[in-house]
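#structure-requests
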Amino acid sequence: MEEYAPGDIIEIQTEKGLAYVQLTHLHPSYPPVVKFLKGRYKDRPDNVLSLSGKGEETVAMVPLSGVLRKLNLPHAKVGEAEIPHGERKFPTFRTPIRDKQGQIIYWWFWDGRGLTYSSELDEVQESLPLREVMSSERFLERLLEDAV
């Protein structure tokens, strides 16, 4: 099984073209954090390393090697790019805490080390990724989103 390190960029062949993800963080108790890089390509871009840091990419915890194996998608590590300065800190994830009726009563925020909470989400908190392990099905859906 492939082992990836922070900074690694992986090219994945999909039915809608080549997609790219970058592994950004490792945590001893959770799957790796990956960033879905924007765009789908017919051919590998000349400077694939420049795909990192284009902003507003989706971040998720994904057991990347296992998901790629399960989906049987052709893939390869195509380079290593420095994690953009503003993304080097472990990302903060949000988790809704619900009452017995299923209503959200507050939110937990996890930064890889500890938890904080809030009863209301502000604009920044609304944009935080959910603290969940992305399934292989959702990973494939996300790879195919916004295909060019």
